[in-house]
Design a protein that fits this description.
Layout (H helix, E strand, L loop, with lengths): L2 H12 L20 H9 L4 H7 L3 E2 L24 E3 L10 E5 L22 H6 L3 H18 L3 E3 L22 H16 L4 E7 L12 E3 L2 H5 L2 H12 L3 E4 L3 E2 L2 E2 L4 H11 L5 E4 L8 H6 L16 H10 L4 H17 L14 H15 L1 E5 L15 E5 L7 E2 L15 E4 L19 E5 L3 H9 L3 E5 L4 H9 L3 E8 L16 H11 L3 E7 L13 E4 L7 H9 L46 E2 L8 H7 L16 E9 L5 E8 L5 E10 L6 E10 L4 E7 L7 E3 L4 E4 L2 E8 L7 E7 L2 E3 L2
Parallel strand pairs: 3-4, 4-5, 5-7, 6-8, 6-20, 7-10, 12-16, 12-17, 17-18, 18-19
Antiparallel strand pairs: 1-2, 2-3, 8-9, 11-19, 13-15, 14-15, 21-22, 22-25, 23-24, 23-28, 26-27, 27-30, 28-29
Helix pairs in contact: 2-12, 5-6, 5-13, 6-8, 13-17, 14-17, 15-16
Beta-D-glucopyranose binds next to loops.
């Protein structure tokens, strides 16, 4: 393609205009045909150079300048600030791919342009804590529509790496530790995105479960163990969401880089799961031309982050020499085109349209209201009274609650809607506030999402006297707490891509601060804004704890509405909270340097390899196997009412069906999440399903959960199939993994399932 036609195509896409109308005689524009047929028809017209164009992406404007990449400078202004860019084929009506990060909103942290804000959704782990597919779908649809209106047509979303490592800097971008919960929720969010005519990825494929040494470490795990855990999460999410693309990850899997891993990409994804979309690489995850192409990579995403161009010219030569066959190149391109047609990119180009802020902010607020988890509520301190006779005095302490709520850092960073883009330098150092909207958010910058909890709490409380102390000086905070009826301490743990935490402690003086405030004021409430689990040495001393994760652009409102009872909390933990790092399979993260934090980037693979000796037993399965008590179990969360589960009836045979009653015993409406777990004759217990129901005071509802037989099975690698053992399976229902409200045993017959 010549430079002029490339520029025209890019300009049209960026300006929201349909790419030049195809002349008559372009049968692939017939929307009545299947995506495969349309891809075949257009491919028949493509030259080899055009095919090579579609498999070779450039670093988007988000990362330039400063990186290698050859989008001509004069084209850049026409592109949205994006993570990646793949030119289209204008003469055939094939638009370019404009890719944005989008785990938690349309990301713009790397490439802020004046006015380019987006609604920040809560972190994905919060969405997982909602246990509600409608919440996940709505979040995806919101991001998808904002992305369209900004000119993007590919979203680098769908993070689903299981939480094998709670200190992982990206735990907040993922959906917890259980393959079913994560798979179903991430699948729903991908559907939401793609219903807006956008391709969503699912990422990072696979076993990219820690940030330490992420670009060199090898995740070493047996095939069956991976199939029953991390790969099962991807498998379920792909079935539920049908993402147009899969992003292969930085790490090596059993010593072979994920983006050139034949087992992972060809055998598991494309053969066993019959995946029809395309595989694109993470930014800088490609290490070869021939192996990558032949082992399943379909598109090199961002040449400027890889150590050299691997597709582009080198791939052209490899095809000319026969090291990569023209048939394989054809397959790579077919997959890309198929997804573009199937997801509506060709027929429904994105356009620059205004964003409906109010409705998008409400999506973020509803998610936060369903995913914040009440962990402790001694003497029913919560909800706090609204406008009590005696005017309450409330001390808000710490967590920059006068400014906003915390968000996680890295490529998913969203610069949120609101006036107060603020930042704080890591680890309690000097505080810097970024005025206005920066072009480039420095890596160590924390972005706080407005509004401020202080404002939201003032508003929600009715007439309370709410005062704020930043908590830096414990004596001053204690003094305020002493003079107040209630003390609310905002505690935070800032996490970001690229770095794992060295421990699960709140940093700085926060644990001491909470202890001191709790000693002074018996009505101490802790609000946690964390990426994932933290340990709580002060738990016995405080009255209430609310896990708010990173609650997004309306997080403060959601927190306030829960505190004062406008919302009855219904989030449930999608991860186990350990009592100490010593309970983890790896008390110290493999590869961390003595200072505790490290990121190895490019280099010779070394002793960073992690042996996942816990196998498929991630999270609660590990705790069961070790017979250790965590701080809070998987699935746990309190409500302002209480629930009971009984009347369990189960049927066995090929699979298990459990039906039961869920009662609201209290006089306040609330949402119960009844969880069904099964312990097979061999292997760990597993979640086979759940039912989240809204119950009025005193109401009872009936629910039925039927297991996907793969959840009862073990994977047989030799035969390459799932095997359900004949035997007695124990079924429990309750409000968390630890709550066995009702139990029964059922016989299941032997069967096998092909993946
Ligand atoms: C991250 C991906 C992201 C990409 C583009 C990488 O560093 O791992 O999740 O989509 O950058 O920003």
């Amino acid at each position: 393609m010549d430079g002029k036609s490339l520029a025209v195509a890019i300009f049209c896409a960026a300006a929201g205009m349909a790419v030049a109308q195809p002349p008559a005689g372009q049968p692939w524009m017939n929307t009545a045909l299947t995506a495969d047929a349309r891809a075949d028809l257009v491919q028949a017209q493509m030259t080899r150079d055009e095919e090579l164009t579609l498999v070779h992406g450039f670093l988007g404007t988000a990362f330039a300048p400063g990186f290698r990449g050859n989008i001509p400078n004069w084209i850049r202004p026409y592109l949205p600030g994006s993570a990646g860019f793949v030119p289209g084929i204008p003469r055939l009506g094939i638009p370019p791919l404009n890719e944005s990060d989008a785990s938690l909103g349309v990301a713009n942290g790397n490439h802020m342009r004046p006015g380019d804000t987006a609604v920040a959704l809560p972190s994905s782990i919060l969405t997982a804590a909602s246990w509600n597919t409608d919440v996940a779908y709505a979040g995806g649809a919101m991001i998808g529509s904002e992305a369209r209106n900004k000119g993007f047509n590919v979203l680098l979303a769908g993070g689903i790496n299981l939480m094998r490592e709670p200190r992982n800097g990206r735990t907040f971008e993922y959906s917890g530790e259980d393959p079913l919960l994560a798979g179903v929720l991430v699948g729903a969010s991908i559907r939401g995105i793609q219903d807006q005519h956008i391709i969503s990825t699912i990422k990072h494929f696979a076993l990219n479960d820690q940030e330490t040494a992420r670009t060199v470490m090898s995740s070493d795990i047996a095939d069956a163990d991976a199939r029953e855990s991390d790969l099962l999460a991807f498998e379920i999410a792909i079935e539920h969401g049908d993402p147009g693309a899969v992003m292969c990850s930085y790490n090596r899997l059993n010593r072979v880089y994920a983006c050139e891993n034949n087992y992972l990409l060809n055998e598991v994804l494309k053969q066993d799961w019959a995946y029809r979309g395309f595989v694109l690489s993470d930014w800088g995850a490609v290490h070869s031309t021939v192996d990558s192409a032949n082992h399943g990579l379909d598109q090199e995403s961002a040449n400027g982050f890889d150590s050299q161009d691997f597709f582009g010219e080198p791939l052209k030569q490899a095809v000319a020499l026969g090291a990569v066959t023209p048939t394989r190149l054809h397959d790579m391109v077919h997959r890309i085109l198929r997804s573009m047609f199937a997801k509506g990119l060709v027929d429904h180009p994105p356009g620059k349209r205004p964003i409906d802020l109010d409705s998008d902010l409400m999506v973020a607020q509803r998610a936060a209201e369903e995913g914040i988890v009440l962990l402790k509520n001694a003497n029913n301190l919560l909800p706090l009274p609204v406008k009590p006779k005696h005017r309450q005095t409330i001390a808000l302490i710490g967590g920059r609650a006068d400014t906003g709520v915390f968000s996680g850092g890295g490529s998913s960073q969203v610069i949120p809607i609101g006036d107060s883009q603020s930042s704080e330098i890591l680890m309690g150092g000097a505080v810097t506030v970024i005025q206005g909207q920066p072009w480039q958010i420095p890596k160590q910058t924390i972005v706080l999402d407005p509004p401020a909890p202080l404002d939201a709490i003032r508003e929600e409380s009715g007439n309370a006297r709410v005062r704020y102390d930043d908590g830096d000086d414990i004596a001053s905070a204690v003094d305020l707490a002493k003079k107040s009826d209630v003390a609310i301490v905002f505690a935070r743990q800032w996490m970001r891509e690229g770095i794992d935490a060295s421990d699960l402690l709140l940093f700085g003086n926060q644990n001491d601060l909470i202890e001191a405030v709790a000693e002074t004021n018996p009505n101490t409430i802790v609000i946690l804004e964390t990426g994932g689990p933290v340990v709580m040495p002060w738990l016995d001393k405080v009255s209430a704890v609310l896990e708010a994760w990173y609650p997004g652009n309306r997080g403060a409102n959601a927190i306030a509405r829960i505190l004062f009872g406008a919302v009855n909390p219904s989030g449930r933990l999608p991860v186990t909270f350990p009592a100490a790092e010593s309970q983890l399979p790896r008390p110290i993260i493999t590869g961390q340097n003595p200072i505790g934090r490290t990121i190895a980037t490019y280099g010779t693979p070394t002793a960073y390899d992690v042996i996942y000796s816990e196998g498929p037993n991630v999270g609660y399965k590990w705790f069961e196997q070790q017979r250790t008590e965590p701080l809070f179990p998987f699935g746990f969360g309190l409500s302002y009412t209480t629930f009971a589960y009984d009347g369990l009836k189960i049927t066995g045979g090929r699979t298990i069906s459990a039906s039961f009653d869920i009662h609201n015993l209290g006089d306040r409406a609330g949402k119960a999440t009844a969880q069904v777990y099964v312990k097979p004759p061999v292997g760990a217990s597993r979640l086979i399903g759940w039912s989240k129901v809204d119950l009025g005071p005193g109401e009872t509802k009936h629910a039925t959960v039927t297991a996907d037989p793969r959840l009862l099975a073990l994977f047989d690698s030799d035969a390459n199939l799932w095997r359900v053992e004949d035997g007695d399976y124990r079924v429990t229902i309750g409000g968390s993994f630890a709550d066995k409200a009702a139990a029964a045993v059922v016989h299941v017959t032997e069967s096998t399932i092909r993946p």
